[in-house]
Amino acid sequence: MPVDRDAGTTCAGQNVQRDGHNTDDNGAKESGSKRVYLKIGREQNADEVKQKRVNNQRKQTECKNQQRQCKEHQDGADKSIENSEHKRCNERRKQAAVFIKVNARYDIHRHPHREGIDDPALQKAQKFFCVRLHVLRHKITECRWVQIASGCAGKQEANSEKESNRNLIAFFRSLNVFNRRKLFCMKFKRPLVFLFGIICLCGVNVSPVAAEDVITPGAKVEKLAGGFAFTEGPTCDTSGSIFFTDQPNNRIMKWSVDGKLSTFLQPAGRANGMYFDAQGNLIACADEHNELWSIAPDKKTTVLIKDYHGKYLNGPNDVWVAPNGAMYITDPFFQRPWWDHDTMALGSEEVFYLSPDRKNLVRMTDDLKKPNGITGTPDGKKLFVSDIGARQTWSYDIQPDGSLTNKTLFCKLGSDGMTIDDEGDLYLTGRGVTVFDRNGKQIDHIDVNEKWTANVSFGGKEHKTLFITASESLYSIQLRVKGANPSK
Q1: CA distances (Å), 87 to each of 93, 141, 149, 162, 168, in order?
Q2: Domains along the chain?
């Protein structure tokens, strides 16, 4: 049977087309299933991420709740501690405030510098000013209690010290302590203005003479006489005339109150320091033979001391006569050209005491280097001794039996001679005259145009002239103050 090629070809094409369609249907089915699987996988992943996010949020919420609960618990405990400490410190502050208020009421009567005012207006101003000061002290004391309270609370927490400092600073700022201008205006400006107004109304003199101004205004050092070998030992008699020595020339000179110079005694035992006693006798350290003399107004000489336990003294240099007649003598060793010896007989250079009856000589010190200038207070209770070798001046308390106690350093300056005024100021010599107040503070200096200033003494009719023996001359200057001792 013959074959129809076109039909066969058509049949083959249909078979191929049918196979192609089947293949396409199979591919479509496979791709669709893959898309479904991918979609399911994406949905599962999204669900897992969402679940993780929810779990994380739940954990964070639980953590925050736990932290909040812990904090509330801790804050409750800290607050209870703080409240108890705050209550305790408030009680202490109230007690301190009561004490300070009571103290402020009576404190004005206990302070010496707030006493002695007779004017009622000044007393009122003084009381007002003191109360203002006590208000400030009261607030500062409260601050101290706040600091104590902060320190107590600091035992309970680690940062207590920083907290206490912050509390302290905040409290001071509340008082305006750090604002100096406000503090001045609040605490001092008003009281001062009030006090100044009262002074102006009452006509009170507010310009007293300064304590250190011992020299009369406008006064200058005046040279009275010269041409001596070396002047020393000035002392004053009852008329105000000055007696001094010209030691190398072995004479005692007199400068009268009317300004006349004369020779009182020659020879004079090489007299050095001198002092008039209450009977008008001139006590002189006559170191030509290491003795102490008493020269009567008629110039009759009596030897009071010639030796100590059989040994001559080193060289009596200066003397002060106490109100009861006892004498204190300095005994340093200075080699003299008129001596026939060049060594001292005694083992040390000290201060000696001669009893009022002039029978007993006692060595009073044992630790000085080279005592020189000496003087005492007019009540006989205090003695000043200058250790010129140690460049120091000491003060002693004089006991009823004449012994010396309570040795105290007065100032770090030695002196050849010295005197004291009625205000308790001490005058030391050497390079001019240096003036110290009763507390040992230098308050003035008097320049003298000489190589060395040896000694000083008050004199004149009013006992306000300071006479100065310096090298080869005699000088004087007018002072505001008087000499404390009648003979010096």
Answers
A1: 10, 18, 10, 21, 18
A2: 96-202 (no CATH), 222-478 (2.120.10.30)
